[in-house]
Amino acid sequence: QQQVKQSPQSLIVQKGGISIINCAYENTAFDYFPWYQQFPGKGPALLIAIRPDVSEKKEGRFTISFNKSAKQFSLHIMDSQPGDSATYFCAARNNAGNMLTFGGGTRLMVKP
Amino acid sequence: EAGVAQSPRYKIIEKRQSVAFWCNPISGHATLYWYQQILGQGPKLLIQFQNNGVVDDSQLPKDRFSAERLKGVDSTLKIQPAKLEDSAVYLCASSLTVNTGELFFGEGSRLTVL
Q1: Mean pLDDT by 10-residue block, N- to C-terminus, for chain A (112 residues)?
Q2: Rounded distance, CA B80 to CA B95, Å?
Q3: What stretches in chain B show pLDDT beneath 70?
Q4: Which residues in chain A are contacts of B48 at CB distance < 8 A?
């Protein structure tokens, strides 16, 4: 019930293309859905987050789409750049105690 | 603003030896977390502190792992004795309060158990 399933495991996109990463969850007690970006040798850093009362949130080139009935959410990176090459993790927070559960990660490579 | 500090960055030990990792959170952050990140996987929560009290340690292998947060600031994570499967990056994170969405992570301590 605490799992967050993320796909694909790896993704290669051409510069300027759209990168799409998907996540699904089961636990209806999750109330906050962040995406973290991690570069090699660094800790994850918050990229963008959404709460279940909205269906979409956009910040610059990054957009989260959220489907509460399907228990799915996705990250779209528009106009992908080589600097976006990193590992992306979706996560979900349990409203009972701020326990953040991470997906397995997607390694994104943006080719120039 | 200084970020989350962790040390050592790298540690190589033999199995059955012990190791300790240190974390200094962002000043003023009440909540501190230790995550284990095995290569190719997402971070897994080991323990969460609110000030110097434990909020959640349900996934901490208590027969070999221990953690403390004295005076509600710095924290130490210890593994004794280490097993091969403990090879991972140990990430420390902090947040302002327990209900704040954003966690700030340190760069991690990479442990290799031979």
Answers
A1: 88 97 93 94 94 93 95 97 97 81 96 94
A2: 28
A3: 1
A4: 97-99
Task: Give the Cα-Cα-Cα angle B55, B60, B66 (nearest 5 degrees).
Answer: 90
For residue B11 the two structure tokens come to 């540690």
What DSSP character marks residue B73? S
- Please check whether residue A23 touches B, CB under 8 A: no
Nearest in space to A90 (alpha carbons), one of A109, A76, A80, A79: A76
* The predicted structure's pLDDT at residue A19: 98
Mutate to test the interface with B, among A98, A99, A102, A107 (most CBs of B within 10 A): A98
Tell me whether residues A104 and B41 touch, CB distance under 8 A. Answer: yes
Among A residues 49-108, those touching chain B with beta carbons less than 8 Å apart? 49, 89, 91, 93, 97-105
